[in-house]
Amino acid sequence: MTDRILPTKDIDQGELEEVVRLRRHFHQRPELAFTEFWTTREICQYLQGLGYSIQYGKDLYKNAYPSVQHISELAALDANLVDEAYAQVTSEYPNDPWLEQMQGGFTGLIATLDSEVSGPTVGFRFDIDGLPIKESAESSHLPSSNSFTSSNENMHACGHDGHTSIGLALAKQISEQIDQLTGRFVLVFQPAEEGPSGGKVFAQFSVFQQLDYFVALHVGILDARRIVCGLSFLSLKSFTVRFKGTNAHAAVSPELGRNALLAACSAVTNIFAISRHSDGVSRMNVGQFHSDNPANVISGLAEFELELRGQSNEICDFLYQRAQDVLQGIALAYGVEVEMEPLGEYVMAENGAASVQLMKQAVLDAGVPEELITDYELTPGSEDATFMMNEVNRSGGSASYLCLGSQTFGGHHHPEFNFDEDMLLYGVDILWRYIQRVNESEK
Ligand SMILES: [Zn+2]
Ligand SMILES: [Zn+2]
């Protein structure tokens, strides 16, 4: 049992059971980036029953991306995996009108409820995807001992099943009490947070320019039961770096070769020699180093993956500029060519002071002791909600990132990842109180 460090507030057992039921329902069927067909369908059906207007599938994507026929045109992923997952789910639910709209990987949705009383537009983001991790069957793992482990080869090993359930429980509360609220509520259920940056794809939807307030959230992360009102993340750029040289016989005519492997080796050591930056934290790493030549052939092709992270977009850009210089210099020295093919990108977003302050009030209202609340904190991970937060902030709104800290039982993306399920109800409660605070502040 975890120590109940957080609030003294009485937990409503009925509400807790419902949000836990939802979490366990989604936990059993994790779907990977842009294949969240079943998950999206489940969410749509739940919200339709609550009176939300739902934008999803091709209709959702077409305004921002009018000519795109398949999600693989927008995101770095394998189109076949998307199509195979679609074939699988449509064989289980034939002729399903929800699913038909999502063919090609157009998953996720945006649900809106309008109080029809003028007031602020408040948005929330919940990510819905799982990871390609085989879940632990150990009896010490709560989903295993309570019989709700994943039914497939994927796993909700980052808590996005929890985020989805918080979103639905909040949606229910908003719809039940809409006559006491003002303004408009926008619930964003975002696909593909893990990897191909669904947040970047979604950020192009015009709705983010209409939000006065916006909150994204995550459970876990801190490995302790405490709350951060304005969490920020590292900016990240990743690439495949490819050196192209000339093959040659290693003994007969080595002088005719242009050694890509040697250039790549030199590049790796010199990239790690790039200076740190005095403005803040930076990180870099290399992986997936390959050259297919046998030892009797001078390597004509070598590649590796490179990841750069910085506390600000400027620090990340600094690392990127320096890495480009290093790679170009080495290519020149070894007489080879080099290219950097982008793999992924996360940006840093500022937490809007207005949103953080309202959130702090909401967390206090929920009964969380002040010593367990932090206003701002940096975590060395990355998150694609930042693309949407930047759109909101740029358009004059105020966006922030809430962390519902909890133990993680092995850490994120681990086969035994889990979190304290009662944090889900705190999540719903805090977001609900945030809405009250926004409504009051705009009166
Ligand atoms: Zn994750
Ligand atoms: Zn996550």
Automatic annotation (TrEMBL):
GO cellular component, as recorded: cytoplasm
BP GO terms, sorted: folic acid catabolic process
Manganese found in the keyword field: yes
Gene3D superfamilies referenced in this protein's UniProt entry, alphabetically: Zn peptidases
Co-factor binding details: The Mn(2+) ion enhances activity.
Keyword Metal-binding: yes
Compositionally biased spans, kind Polar residues: 139-154
Residue ranges the record marks as coiled coil: none
Peptidase M20 dimerisation domain residues: 236-328
A single GO molecular function term of this UniProt record: dipeptidase activity
Residues binding Mn(2+), per UniProt: C158, H160, E194, H218, H413
Pfam family, one: M20_dimer
Cofactor(s) named in the record: Mn(2+)
UniProtKB keywords: Hydrolase, Manganese, Metal-binding
Region Disordered, residue ranges: 137-156
Protein name, UniProt field: Amidohydrolase
Source organism of the structure: Reinekea thalattae
